[in-house]
Amino acid sequence: MRRTIAFPTLVALGLSFGAAFGAPSGPPMTIHLKPRVAQYADAVAIRGHAGRSRGAVVALQRQPFPFDGGFETVARQRTRRHGAYAFRRTPGHATRYRVVRGGARTSRRLTVYVEPRFTKMRCNLCGASSATAGRHTLRISFRLVYPQDAFSLEARKRALLYYGQRNGSARRPRSLHLAETTRQVRAGPNRTRVAFRHRVKLPATFRFAVAVCTRTSMRADGIGLPGRPGSHGCGDGSITYRQSRHWLG
Question: 218 φ, ψ to 5°?
Fold first, then answer.
């Protein structure tokens, strides 16, 4: 029976969403941000409503890591129907955003966190069927791309592989266990190559899941999730399947 696998995403956390209130005399200023955690070089969408009228000028402001300066305006536009606005930005590091209307009414601020970018992913047993029953070596490789100013710190980290398997069923495994760790190998000015090998025994019916991560260092370089290294599960002896489908760090 064919088993399914979702190739790993690193890490997940919830950010604050919803309405942020400006001056009490006007309608609410709302702001939403998606995705909450972005891969490096991916765009994020910042949407909401600045009142209810068309044509009002709104400014998008940002406060980039390390958050020790003020907010700066990076884009402006006029609101559309029902006061809607929409911006797209590509943050290189963790960044706080807010929207201002008329210089007086301001939305709440939201933070987007930035993770390394996955490229050139390979997995020799992903998509394997019952014809592959027996002992095998699972081989997984990929490249990680970082901002140049964070490369020195990020490239020194060890990458961790989690593996979980359920035999005799196509249902997902309940948990994944730390299976392998390996170093990153420089593969360019701001990228590394990571390769894992892990021995597995596959029955006729099975499903396995994998996840990979590096421990966060957001406090030092603005890459990863907030908190101390390992505070989001990366480095634990085992993680749940639910954790494996989100970001670790």
Answer: -55, -35
